[in-house]
Amino acid sequence: MAKTNDKDLQVLIVEDEQLLNEAYARVLAAANISLLRAYNGKEALDLLTKEKPDIILLDLRMPVMDGIEFLKQLKPKDNYPETKIIVFSNYDDQHEIDEAFSLGAMHYMLKAWATPDELIKLIREVDNASQPAA
Amino acid sequence: MSSKTSRSRAVADGQKTVDYWRLFRDLPDACLLFEASDPDYMIVEANKAREEMMQISRADTIGRPLFSVPPYTGEQFKSGPGKDLRQHLQQVMRTGRSYRLEAVRGTVFGVGGVKRTVYLQGAYVPLRDTAGKVCHILCIIHDVTDEMQAAEETKAMESRLSAALTIGKLGSWVFDPTDGRITGDENFKKLFFTPDELAHTYTIDMFLESVHKDDRPRVIAAVQRSLKRNVLFEEECRVYMQDGTIRWILARGEPEKGEDGTFSGVVVDLTEQRTLQAQVALARQQDRLNRQAARILRQRNEELEAISRSKDEFVALASHQLRTPATAVKQYIGMMLQGYVGDITEMQYDVLEKAFEGNERQIQIINQILSAARVDTGKLVVALMPLDLRSLVQGIAAEMRPVFEQREHTFTVRVPADPVYVAADLSYLRMAIENVVQNASVYTPKGGSVRMTLTVVRGNAVLRVSDTGVGIRKKDIGKLFVKFSRIHNPLSVEAGGSGIGLYLTAEIVRLHDGTVDVESRIGKGTTFAISLPLMHNKNIKKGDARRKG
């Protein structure tokens, strides 16, 4: 179980389900990762005008503005080249992952699969990895 | 030199030029020559016509036993008209007389290699050696299809004609009111008399006696009416024939007396028409009833389907609602297990681990139900990409190994040395295979074994998952892939499945253009075989991947 002192790493969680949003927040907090939380794409966009997280954990299916729409509006490749984006999905929205990748997402994670250790491990990997070619 | 001598010399010379082998070879009918004294009737020669008829070369025919080549391999020679051929051949050998086997149905190859059903007549002719003993039998097969068809058509036409004649036959009669006698012509006699009675006196009373009692009052009234008022007599009625059968007749009588004071008329046998009409009416009524029944059945089915659909929708909705809390629970228990909220005792760890497992199972079942719901509504889309099945199989095996160890199962995996490429959606295919492997584990008691074997068979990748488990009854195999069906077996209580895993497997494999087969024996074990077509062009870029749903 990894627990390192990484307070400079900041992660933005974009997840509409409160239960999950809170659970992931707890996991990240327990791993000493500073975090920001948004419940849909629009809130996330608003947050991003003020903050600059290193990593975004992005749920695909959300009300008001979903993950794909968020990516289209954010244009991370142009505007946020240093921010790394991990998309969350369930089995249902697998085929949207391709679209997310083409819009600038770097990695994906099946919600149902990841344990806290795996989530943290993925975040660390992504953090250490260099950005993919645009 | 006399002309007789020169002619016989010419004939002798001519005979010398005959190439008898060529003659045999080029005969227009298919011929076989086989040994008469050999119990197998070994074939020594076959001519060109036979090669073409059966599409089997001479080289493949000679040296073989007669009954191992077509048409002798067919049903016609086992239980049909040709079944006694062997006995007949023995007789040919003994008596030296030919045997002809009439019209056996067979399949031959015609022009352009097209198969035709034909009627073949076979003549089996004995050939003697110099000692006079029958040493070979020559079989000449003659295609009599055209003759057979012509004969059949003639027969059909004749019966149609005779039916037409029977219905149209009019009998004429003459009625003398003074003594009540009726006389009639040949046709009339044929209708009402048996052959030995043809000479007898026939009276109106006798006629009326023969009329069916339900029709009699009507006929009597009609007769009386005609006689009294000189009106046309015309009645349809049933009469009893001499042999006890009932026939429908139509009798018609002229209203005016003839010069000799008699009435004349005709009678015709309507039985066929009547029966036909009755049958048609009956058939129409049955048809109406059938259609009504079908309509009601359709309605019931629609109702049942609607109920089934709404049940499925409810289940899918419930599962959807359950998914988020179940995933959240996973995170919280995971946090405790993985040390994110402080140390825990060993006992607490054990307990939490059990909870975690239960939660994993919940999530799995939820995902299965939701996937099944999407298969049903056609929304499940597989994105097919080139995949070396070996790595998937080995990956699943590695994941499942701890489970097998825990249940004390011997677990073996075998994959080929060369890559096995199929077009697959990795996550869905994994799901499909995992369900099968999990089943194998669950339904095999402790100490049993499970084997995964990947092979390539005729252009397909075949993955077999075999277990030494409780097995499945033959009659239950049909239920295996049906949603929510449960099959009772000694381990059912332990199994605790969702009833949906195999349904999903079958559908996912179907979307991959594959098939699933099951073989099982109660108490011995089960083998699931998933077959997927091999992919030939593996150089497909990600963007070209096919999507199917």
Quick recap:
The complex is a heterodimer of chains A (134) and B (549). Chain A is built from six helices and five strands.
Q: Separation of termini of chain A? A: 34 Å
Q: Biggest sheet of chain A, in brief?
A: 5 strands, parallel
Total discrete domains of chain B? 4
Question: End-to-end span of chain B in angstroms?
Answer: 96 Å
Largest sheet of chain B: 5 strands, antiparallel
Strand neighbour order, sheet with most strands of chain A: 2-1-3-4-5
CATH topology heading of the largest domain in chain B = Heat Shock Protein 90
The number of helical elements of chain B comes to 15
Rg of chain A from C-alpha positions?
A: 13 Å
CATH uppermost class of the largest domain in chain B: Alpha Beta
- What would the principal axes of the Cα set say about the shape of chain A? globular
Shape of chain B: flat
Helix count, DSSP H or I runs of 4 or more residues of chain A: 6
Any idea of the CATH class of chain A?
A: Alpha Beta
Walk across the major sheet of chain B and give the strand order.
2-1-5-4-3
